[in-house]
């Protein structure tokens, strides 16, 4: 009798590989997805397939890595430098990413990159097919692998396939700009269950499938030759307990004391982002400058800590953004700093999760104001760390998280006047009101945590198969 297994497929494996000559080092990823899926892929024969994050051409090293990773239920797909350039940095990050985040003028349409995207998606699908058995279920993740569901379906008609998109799905008018729109949609609808962060994203996807592929639909069902597939919202979350515990940990105390000493009597505003034009760094810095300009009473009364994790800085738009941020921060600081106060503390590097938790805990206000974001986990991490229930979250309505965290001060990041008003409202918010809002947001994040998200998606995948079987016997 065959025992069924779950196969997770994502661009990156939840591991970092370092190579020092022939010495191979492994470091587990602490990311939310790795934590959530950890409860699945480490069980029984389950497996996680993905790129190990380093370009390794030497076959004997590849074999050694494959063997080592097998003991951790991970299976690597090795990619060449050219594949990474064209499939990942090219088509995924220079075409799909800007288009799906409503930056169509940044999107680059390149046939060669598209061809490599197809080749690499086939590599991932082949890696799945090599280990696949009839009763297995497969969960494919994100925009880098949108063709994989159908590539698997072509060879395995009845297997259970789920697909989840971690970034927004754009409205039809934006999606239709893509020359390969039909092929991409056909790739995704190979899945039985297709998940997005928000209800709106799922509606946009159904709408594109109707208009581009001519697929019939009924509510959240699409029909592929009479077979129903389900499209739905599954808002991702974080490991609430991990952040809540970290923030309460006594080991955090020295960090906290340090931060509290540095900020003195000023209020601490915090932002944490990857370097990306979708994260709204420029609008946010301009709003902060406007606050100091229009409300000089806050000079020396507020400190803004902006953490930026380096990301994709070989891509032109990203290196230009970095220059713009550097310049803006320097202009604001040179204009407003005094001998004993600097308005913006700007860091361009990754921080340890301990320091991050201490910052979340001590911040009075978190500014999470992307121009567009699938979900945005920083908003939820901040809430999870506020165990004393104080603190204010200012959240962009363009982040998926705004659908759940509606006790935040929700703003449109393009509306600079309302942005400044929100900053003042947050700086002046009475503690009772902070507690009331924070309590309800903590309740949501603690209940709908990452473990809940994984369970919900997997249960739903099971249900779709039952539905399909029922309809086929009728
Ligand atoms: P990202 O675009 O990477 O994820 P986000 O959800 O905010 O965006 O996650 C970023 C992560 O990086 C957070 O866990 C945060 O703590 C960490 N981080 C940020 N700055 C850091 C720093 N300086 N040091 C250390 N860590 C830092 C994509 C989508 C999102 C979606 C997630 C999950 O773009 O919309 O929420 O996937 O689906």
From TrEMBL:
E.C. code: 2.4.1.15
Reaction equations catalysed: D-glucose 6-phosphate + UDP-alpha-D-glucose = alpha,alpha-trehalose 6-phosphate + UDP + H(+)
GO cellular component terms given for this protein: cytosol
GO biological process: trehalose biosynthetic process
Segments passing through the bilayer: none
Pathway(s) where this gene product acts: Glycan biosynthesis; trehalose biosynthesis
Keywords, in A-Z order: Glycosyltransferase, Transferase
Mitochondrion as UniProt keyword: no
Single Gene Ontology MF annotation: alpha,alpha-trehalose-phosphate synthase (UDP-forming) activity
Self-association state and partner proteins as the record states: Homotetramer.
UniProt similarity note: In the C-terminal section; belongs to the trehalose phosphatase family.
The protein's name in its UniProt record: Alpha,alpha-trehalose-phosphate synthase
Species annotation: Solitalea agri
Portion of the parent chain present: 1 to 474 of 739
């Amino acid at each position: 009798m065959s025992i069924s297994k779950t196969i997770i497929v994502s661009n990156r494996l939840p591991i970092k590989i370092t190579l020092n000559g022939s010495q191979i080092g492994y470091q587990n990823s602490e990311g939310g997805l790795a934590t959530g899926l950890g409860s699945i892929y480490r069980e029984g024969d389950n497996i996680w397939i993905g790129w190990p994050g380093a370009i390794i051409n030497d076959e004997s090293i590849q074999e050694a890595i494959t063997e080592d990773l097998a003991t951790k239920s991970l299976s690597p797909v090795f990619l060449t430098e050219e594949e990474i350039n064209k499939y990942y940095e090219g088509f995924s990050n220079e075409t799909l990413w800007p288009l799906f985040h409503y930056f169509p003028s940044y999107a680059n349409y390149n046939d060669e990159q598209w061809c490599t995207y197809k080749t690499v998606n086939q590599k991932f699908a082949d890696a799945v097919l090599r280990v696949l058995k009839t009763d297995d279920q497969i969960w494919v993740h994100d925009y880098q692998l949108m063709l994989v569901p159908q590539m698997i379906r072509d060879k395995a008609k009845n297997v259970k396939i789920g697909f989840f998109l971690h970034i927004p799905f754009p409205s039809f008018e934006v999606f239709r700009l893509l020359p390969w729109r039909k092929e991409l949609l056909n790739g995704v609808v190979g899945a039985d269950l297709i998940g997005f962060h928000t209800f709106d994203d799922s509606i946009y996807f159904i709408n594109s499938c109707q208009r581009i592929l001519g697929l019939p639909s009924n509510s959240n069902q699409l029909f592929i030759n009479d077979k129903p597939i389900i499209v739905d919202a599954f808002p991702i979350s974080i490991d609430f307990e991990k952040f809540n515990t970290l923030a309460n940990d006594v080991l955090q105390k020295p960090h906290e004391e340090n931060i509290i000493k540095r900020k003195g009597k000023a209020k601490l505003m915090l932002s944490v982002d990857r370097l990306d034009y979708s994260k709204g760094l420029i609008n946010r810095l301009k709003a902060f400058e406007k606050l100091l300009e229009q409300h000089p009473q806050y000079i020396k009364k507020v400190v803004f800590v902006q953490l930026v994790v380096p990301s994709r800085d070989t891509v032109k738009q990203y290196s230009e953004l970095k220059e713009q941020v550097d310049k803006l921060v320097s202009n604001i600081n040179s204009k407003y700093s005094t001998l004993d106060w600097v308005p913006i503390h700007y860091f361009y590097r990754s921080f340890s999760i301990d320091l991050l938790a201490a910052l979340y805990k001590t911040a009075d206000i978190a500014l999470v104001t992307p121009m567009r974001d699938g979900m945005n986990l920083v908003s939820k991490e901040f809430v999870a760390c506020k165990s004393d229930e104080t603190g204010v979250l200012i959240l962009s309505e363009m982040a998926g998280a705004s659908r759940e965290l509606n006790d935040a001060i929700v703003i449109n990041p393009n509306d600079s006047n309302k942005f400044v008003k929100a900053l003042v409202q947050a700086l002046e918010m009475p503690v009772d009101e902070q507690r009331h809002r924070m309590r309800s947001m903590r309740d949501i994040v603690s209940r709908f945590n990452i473990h809940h998200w994984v369970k919900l998606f997997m249960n739903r995948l099971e249900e779709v198969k039952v539905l399909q079987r029922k309809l086929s016997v009728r």
